[in-house]
Write a structure and sequence with these properties.
The protein is mainly α and 770 residues long. Helices cover 64% and strands 5% of the residues.
Length: 770
């Protein structure tokens, strides 16, 4: 990430002078996707690899002594990909693959420098005129609560955004403070926890006079909350706030030890991370004599928490989880061991520093390959510790470690800096109904924004991918991405706005899609999940106001219509569906709604509905079948309606729809429509029997069918269609390189769909077959 502050007007001038093209590759580039690169790397003077490195660059590229790395003559518009690949290979690459690009860019930059200066002055003057009265006006609007920071037009406005951001945070804090002074806590749910947490932390860091009030609120929350998971979150906030307020932990020491011991059964990443932070504080309080626990107890807890983290690391299925847990283990390992604490050796501190760096290098080796990690936080912690403990900076490899972590931080922050522009472009494509292009754009956003600071944008991009597929009528591809939003927002502990996505962009959308597909039983199931999620995560609980909650209103309306429809079916079906609604705790509520609205269907109404849409509970029929059209071909898949087969069938349909969407502009000249049957077996096999293509699958929960299904899709294309293999391989590059698949469909399905649902399916199907 560049240390040079290049103003917007200069970036715009460079872009226009280069005719909106990359200076290296001479290809068109969007302003929002452009990076301004230092042709001779800025690092050469900030962090040289050798003493005379700048001189070596000057000699190789015939630059005079007056050449300035920060001058316009060393700036070049570039794509991010080329910028990352080029790096400093202009000097440190024996093949000299980038030499010609650098020479061309240096010549062009020198040639265009006068034009860039002229354009820059014009653009700067226009901006100055436009913004003459902006600063005072904007700050006043923010202070009055009439404008939010995200609505400000960032391009060119000369205003202190840090100041405006602080004003906005202060206004938000005062609103929350006033609310809880007036009404205290009502729901004791995650929504209120997020508000209280944000306000308590603001009070701690800004050292407001209200911290005692928030301590009282947190104590009240902890005393009344029934949920054990949230209880651990609230306890962490209470203990941390007490520490920041300078209060002794002795009154909560028994609870604190119970909290540490409860980590043995804990799998939640955030809570495990919080426990490591609290233990480090607890250890420090022990050294200061501010807690009553014995040295034996402290080191017993240290060993227990460390072993528990190691066990969780070994069980971790993703590199991101493993890296974050290793960081927590690193925090605990960074505390003095029992021998070091009792050691009177004058070199004890130096020995500790050596052990610290041995642990640190192991951590760096794994986090360099992950995205979901707080690199800025790690850099801040590392530099703060180095400032406090002089032996760290005296360590021989300190500068090398500092450089490695600074590079990771700069790359992390550089990725974050482009995300909003990329997201805006994706939404623009979506609004223009260019869905295939929008999908590729949102996939890019998803990948680079999967980190703690940009998680909301990441999940929102996944939601938009689902919306694109829904509008393309590829419904199981859409369902996959809606379920992915639900899954990630539910699994990852995060801020209040992210938790709203569990239902707004997750469960609600899955339910609505199921109503549309006439999978009425699963639709009602997800409707009940949406209600539960609102009760736990929303600040308003379950609110059916059309004005405030049009998603929920539509879902309940559909659930009532399906219930009214079932009342005109046979007595057996009516009873089975009534009991099913009752199990989901929806029957009385929906019956009351039907009575208030005086709503019902007649036999004739039901006949008209079925003539138009078919049976509204198609997900109960056995065998199940789904057909769709794509690439001018009709695709049909049939499967046994049981828990594992349905999960695998939907997974195969979703992957096929996503795969085919990447080759949508290839003329595949189909010979015939495709009919497939998914069949339970004791093996995995794909064969043709009497023109019916059969996929035999092992119905085991832990089987990974992702690569096997893609093998079948390839085989289908090459066997059934007249199409070039090279054409397909070229088209599917984005799918493989960008990574269209984050989690396996069947894994998410099995996690959220209860097997009891299939008991109801079988009961209804039995009645239909009588």
């Amino acid at each position: 990430m560049s240390k040079q502050n290049i103003p917007q007007y200069l970036k715009r001038a460079i872009w226009e002078a280069y005719k909106k093209k990359s200076g290296y590759e001479d290809i068109p580039i969007l302003f929002s996707e452009m990076e301004i690169d230092h042709i001779i790397p800025e690092r050469v003077i900030l962090n040289p690899k050798e003493k005379n490195e700048f001189l070596l660059w000057k000699v190789k590229y015939d630059l005079n002594d007056a050449f300035n790395i920060h001058s316009i003559e060393n700036l070049c518009p570039s794509t991010r990909d080329f910028n990352l690949m080029k790096s400093d290979k202009g000097l440190y690459d024996e093949a000299d693959a980038y030499k010609k690009y650098i020479i061309r860019a240096l010549i062009k930059a020198k040639e265009l420098a006068p034009k860039i200066k002229e354009l820059g002055e014009k653009i700067k003057k226009n901006l100055a005129t436009r913004n003459a009265n902006s600063v005072t006006k904007l700050i006043n609007l923010v202070e009055e609560g009439k404008i939010e920071l995200r609505y400000l037009i960032l391009d060119g406005i000369k205003v202190d955004y840090t100041q405006i951001g602080e004003l906005e945070e202060f206004e938000k804090y005062n609103i929350i403070l006033s609310k809880y002074r007036t009404q205290r806590i009502i729901y004791y749910n995650f929504g209120e926890y997020c508000e209280v947490r944000s306000a308590a932390r603001y009070s701690q860091y800004k050292k407001t006079e209200d911290l005692a009030f928030w301590l009282d609120i947190l104590e009240d929350f902890l005393s009344n909350i029934p949920d054990s998971k949230l209880k651990n979150n609230v306890f962490y906030e209470l203990a941390f706030a007490m520490f920041k307020a300078g209060k002794s932990w002795k009154p909560i020491e028994v609870q604190l030890i119970e909290y540490f011991n409860s980590m043995g059964d804990e799998k939640n990443l955030e809570i495990l991370q919080q426990s490591a932070v609290l233990f480090n504080i607890f250890y420090g309080e022990f050294q200061r004599g501010r807690v009553d626990s014995s040295i034996d107890k402290v080191f017993e807890l240290r060993e227990f928490l460390l072993n528990n983290l190691i066990e969780n690391i070994e069980l971790a299925k993703t590199q991101a989880r493993k890296a974050n847990l290793k960081n927590s283990a690193f925090l605990i390992r960074s505390s003095l061991t029992r021998d070091e604490l009792l050691d009177r050796d004058p070199d004890a501190n130096k020995k500790w520093v050596k052990r610290y760096f041995q642990n640190f290098i192991q951590l760096l080796d794994i986090i360099e390959n992950v995205k979901f990690f707080d690199f800025s936080g790690l850099y801040k912690d590392f530099t703060r510790l180095a400032d406090r403990i002089e032996y760290i900076k005296e360590f021989p490899d300190y500068d090398e470690f500092h450089s490695r972590i600074a590079t990771l931080k700069n790359k992390y922050e550089g990725n974050n800096s482009t995300i909003e522009d990329l997201m805006s472009r994706g939404i623009e494509l979506y609004n223009n109904k260019q869905y295939f292009k929008a999908i590729r754009q949102f996939q890019n956003v998803k990948n680079i924004s999967f980190n703690p600071d940009k998680l909301y944008t990441c999940l929102f991009s996944v939601y938009y991918i689902g919306e694109c597929y829904k509008n393309l009528e590829l419904y199981y591809a859409a369902k996959y991405y809606f379920m992915l939003v639900f899954y990630l927002a539910e699994e990852i502990d995060a801020e209040y706005n992210i938790k709203q996505l569990t239902y707004n962009c997750g469960a609600d959308r899955v339910a609505a899609l199921n109503y549309f597909l006439n999978n009425g039983l699963e639709a009602v199931y997800f409707t009940s999940i949406s209600i539960i999620l609102r009760e736990f995560y929303s600040l308003e609980g379950f609110n059916l106001s059309l004005e405030k909650n049009n998603n929920m209103y539509a879902l309940i309306e559909n659930a009532m219509k399906n219930l009214a429809y079932s009342k005109q079916k046979s007595e057996n079906i009516k009873d089975i569906i009534g009991k099913y609604y009752e199990i989901l705790d929806l029957l009385n509520f929906l019956e009351e709604g039907l009575n208030k609205l005086n709503f019902s269907y007649s036999k004739d109404d039901v006949k008209k509905i079925e003539d138009k849409y078919g049976f509204l509970f198609k997900d109960a029929i056995n065998p199940r079948q789904f057909s769709w059209s794509q690439l001018g071909v009709k695709w049909t898949i049939t499967w046994e309606n049981n828990f594992l087969s349905t999960a695998l069938a939907e997974e195969f349909i979703a992957y096929t729809q996503i795969f085919l969407s990447t080759i949508e502009d290839i003329d595949i000249l189909s010979a015939e429509d495709v009919v497939l049957k998914l069949k339970p077996s004791n093996r995995f096999y794909f064969t043709n029997v009497n023109r019916e293509k059969i996929i035999e699958v092992l119905e085991e929960r832990d089987q990974d069918y992702f690569p096997k299904f893609f093998t079948i899709i390839f085989q289908l294309l090459f066997e059934s269609f007249i199409v070039s293999k090279d054409q397909i391989m070229e088209k599917i590059k984005p799918l493989l390189e960008i990574g269209y698949f984050s989690n396996y469909y069947a894994d998410i399905y099995k996690k959220f769909i209860h097997t009891d649902l299939f008991e109801t399916y079988h009961q209804i199907n039995g009645v239909l077959n009588e």
